[in-house]
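In this supplementary section we document a worked example of the pipeline. Step one takes a protein sequence of length 427 as its only input; no multiple sequence alignment statistics are reported here. Step two produces a three-dimensional model, which step three serialises into structure tokens for compact storage. The input and output of this example are shown verbatim.
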Amino acid sequence: MVELNEKKALIAILVAALVFRLVLSQAAPIWGGPDEPSHYNFIVQLEGEKALTELTQEDVAGTLNYVSIYQPPLYYLANSFLYSPIKGLPVSDIIHLLRLFNVLAGTAGVFLVYKILKLVSGNKGTILLTTAIVALLPTHIVVSSTVNNAPLDWLFVLLSAYFFVLALRKGFGIKQVFLAQLFFGLAVITKFLPLSLLPLVLLFDAWFFRESAEKAVKKLAACIVPFLIFGPILLRNFLIYGSFIVQPAKSISGLSLELFVYDLTRTFAGVWVQEYGVAFIPNYRIWFFALFGLITLFSALGIAFLAWQRRQRLLKMTENALSFKKTELEKREISLVFLGVAFLLSFASFTYLNTSWFFPDARLFFETIAFAMLFLVIGQKGFWKAVSMPKGASYSLSLLLICLLYFDLVLLINHYTVLPQVPWPIP
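The serialised model returned by step three reads:
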């Protein structure tokens, strides 16, 4: 009966995820998504020229039409094939049809979150709550309902994470390692942001070489796969532009307290609400973000409490990190640490982008946002356990889900005003 309930809950979450994304994809006006004109123009250009264009200085400067053209081509190549048979239709119809690709990718990503969490957690409540939070995050819904390369990137990162964790759990099977490396490579040629995870992948490779009983040639073949996939793109960029990654010139002259506050506000709000227009939170909207702030703070304290409680076990696990003779619980904890480090690397990359080019959009680290939400749920349980109110986690997380659901409904109702630089309308 418990298994049946879990399946019903999962189906309900996936249906909600699909419906919200599908409705918004068809209801929102064209060009309403993040840099949607630029992403669309790159698809059209790639379909017409059948080749990657060499950028001009104007392109690299990041004009509206070319701000996305410096990105790796996989998403645009895939959508150019979808665009080809429908290019005779009105532009608005084409946009709404192309958005369906990301609706499916975003919903599939939610399912993958569930599959990953099944490998690292034995608690059904934690698994389902985290999956539901990701499914209902308005930023996730907006981005996976419009034309852009992020949802496919998220999907490949999650696929890669799933097989990496599966390899950790199953003793470094060569098939799991190969698939993990394959999807990591595909993620990088969809969007360059996953390169921030390369240190973790290399650390995994070193561990894999030490622990796996496979022949060295097979291990090397598996580990070299992502470099064979994204290497040619990086080499092409270097030969043409003198840089492996071409970025638009958006450097800032200096940092200030005012800029820091603006950036922190917009970034934090962008995690919970769709990215555009959330820097300014007038009137009673501040109470929503005060709630999210408290929940985040409680989770951080809860993680600290749980880490202190398990300090001896964590120290022992660290000392024996290179030995793979571990219990199932230890393998789960190692997998959990793996996901945590993945999020920290992704967030560190976002911070670098923010200080170098000023991109204060939380969606830039959403490829690993599910891992952050997992720790948020675990931290909530740890915090309320620390204050001897174990039921408190159920109340706080239920309230969080209700708020997200409210935001989603408002987003759909006010879809016509969800445009760049327009304050997000909460009535």
